[in-house]
Amino acid sequence: MRRLDVQPHFDLGPRPVTWRELRRVVASGVVFVLLIGALAAGLTELVALRDLARPVEGFLDFAPGGQAEMTVLASVPGADLGFVVTHHVMRMIVVITVVITGAPIVERLMRIRRAA
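The structure corresponding to this sequence follows.
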C-alpha cells in the first residue's frame, strides 16, 4: 500500500488568489450546484408523477445536504419528517456500503490497467 505524503510545506508562504483561480472555482461550484439541483428536480418529478411522495418531500429527499439540514428544512413546509429522515439515513447507508465494497474493486481494476 502506498503512503500518501500530506506533510504541509511551510516554506511556500501565503500567496494571493488570482481572478482566474477565483472564477474557475466559483464557476465549477455553480455548475455542480446546477447539476445536483437538476438531478434532484428530475427525481422529484419522477416521484411526484408516480404518487410515491408529495413534491416537497420528494425534493427534500433528493436534495443535497446533511440529514440535520434537511430535517430543519422539512419542518418548515410541514413535510413528513420521518419520511425525509429515513430517506437520508438510507442514502448514507447505501453510499457508505457502495464505497466500502466498491473501493477495493476499483483499486484492483486500476492496478490491472496500469500493469497492461
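The mean pLDDT is 83.
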